[in-house]
Design brief:
The radius of gyration is 17 Å and the shape is globular. It is 31% helix and 35% strand. It has 5 helices and 9 strands, in the order βαααβββαβαββββ. A 7-stranded mixed sheet has the order 1-2-3-4-5-7-6, with helices on both faces. Strands 8-9 form a two-stranded antiparallel sheet. It has a single domain, classed as Gcn5-related N-acetyltransferase (GNAT) (Aminopeptidase), CATH 3.40.630.
Length: 164
């Protein structure tokens, strides 16, 4: 597996991966009705492509197939992180998040994590700021506003002092 920058021609594949992932992986935490308003199958590809181009966006590729994607804006807001339904638990999400956090270099990262994704983000050091109900087409979905603050790294310099 390798991580690369998003290309415009990836958009259709990302929309399919998004739909399939939501409707399989998230089905343990959300009802069918909730899944259908979350991932309707009718994505405005122009808008998605534009947001991917405006954000720092990476895709994970394995054997010429996209197995995950993630994007973050320049404020450190992680907008989307989705890993192929057959590649869960293999480090794809970790690699994508690592790449984004290094590239964006914000002092604070935030995301709106699903019930399903909450444990993943907690393992990465994100903390719940608040639980919320998001309304889509009259249906409510629970998610969590989560935040991770970057700590400045401390190390010994060659003169024996501490630097930040």
């Amino acid at each position: 597996m390798y991580i690369r920058k998003y290309k415009q021609e990836d958009c259709v594949d990302l929309s399919k991966l998004f739909y399939e992932t939501v409707h399989t992986v998230n089905s343990k935490d959300y009802t069918e009705e909730q899944l259908c308003v979350w991932a309707t199958g009718k994505i405005d590809l122009e808008k998605w492509n534009q947001s991917f181009l405006e954000h720092c966006t990476y895709v994970a590729v394995e054997k010429e197939m996209i197995v995950g994607f993630a994007d973050m804006d320049d404020t450190g807001y992680l907008d989307r992180l989705y890993v192929h339904k057959d590649c869960q638990g293999r480090g794809v999400g970790k690699e994508l998040c690592d790449a984004l956090e290094l590239s964006v270099g914000s002092k604070k990262f935030t995301t709106h994590a699903s019930i399903t994704a909450k444990p993943f983000f907690e393992k990465r050091g994100y903390q719940v700021v608040k639980k919320q109900q998001v309304e889509r087409q009259g249906i409510f979905l629970t998610n969590y506003v989560m935040e991770k603050r970057q700590e400045q790294e401390t190390f010994q310099d060659t003169q024996g002092g501490t630097k930040r």
